[in-house]
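Box 3.1 A note on notation
Throughout this textbook, protein chains are presented in two layers. The first layer is the amino acid sequence; the second is a token string describing backbone geometry. Keep the layers aligned when reading.
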Amino acid sequence: MTDPDRTPNPERRKGSKAPAPAPDKAALPRATSRQAEKPPVTQAQVPEAQSPDIQATGSHDADQLPKDLAAGLLDSPIFGDAVIAGPAGGHQPEAEELIDFVPQLLPMYPGNEPFLARFLPRSAPQYYGLNTEFCDLHAFLKYLHEHTWHGYLQAALGDQNAYVLLYEGRTVAAAAASATGELALGELLSFYEEGATLSAHPLSPTFAHVLSGVGSRAWKFNLTEDFTGLHARPTGAIFYDRGEIVATMPATLPYEGAFPAPLRPQTLILPRSLAGWAHHSYSLTLRGRDALNAITDIHLEFKHKHGPAGLGLLRAVSQNLSPAEYAMREDLALHEIEPLLDTFMKGGYLRDQ
């Protein structure tokens, strides 16, 4: 039986007033939404720095970035996910209606061909103007992972663009003109190495999760009480989180389709062309086999020094898994595995196969 509190119908909430009907008959259906993580604001209340026309002022000036980028990344303020617009018809909700108010997000790249880019919400950049002259992209991605950052990256090289979505600091979706997933992630890294500038735009964890299922194809929409993902239609898109509408967006597809989000978004792994070491095969040396044998002194020493993470990597190698396969199975980032692999190779625990 469907929980009535989770049914997307604002009129089922006790004590809430029904909003005035919108004159636009094509307006999206209203549904109950959970209280927003930030209080809704009108356009007039948005500070200048949060205006849809993003301005390069204050601490966001690239010239003001510290030489030690990682030490000063958190100095820049995080802007909101989007300017929240009112319902169709210009109706401004009363205070008691705010709990039933569904925000409308604005698309950052309206009409863009890659599906992921088309549905990315407008968000002022937290970091922008990054390039190879002062920022190592791999170090930057590691930093975002360590701080469980949510948002998306955009790299522009001439008229070429690539987009990568991060959830909990992990790369979980990517899109470029002719690729998605791991290949698109590789294109963003290639563009960056060729001189592209990169910007990073923060999102709420909820919106990042909803978008994590957007890939190269849409599926038949089937609304369930726990559906999380994006419902795209010719009249607009609806963001769902566990069966509830949390936002809408005037971004469309020519047909109706759904992009369901996984329960836990999986980390994208770099392709062989950019991380050959991760797709290479390794084997245990005699010392490595002793490190896995619980009755040896080497095992005790190894366990004390490298812990479960080190033992896990050795066991994966003993099962003929490549580092990339191990990272996918355990949902790990490659930068977590690479230093361990290098240490074990130098320590005589592993060898190339």
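Residues 286 and 349 are 7 Å apart (CA to CA). Confidence is low (pLDDT under 50) at residues 1-90, 92-99.
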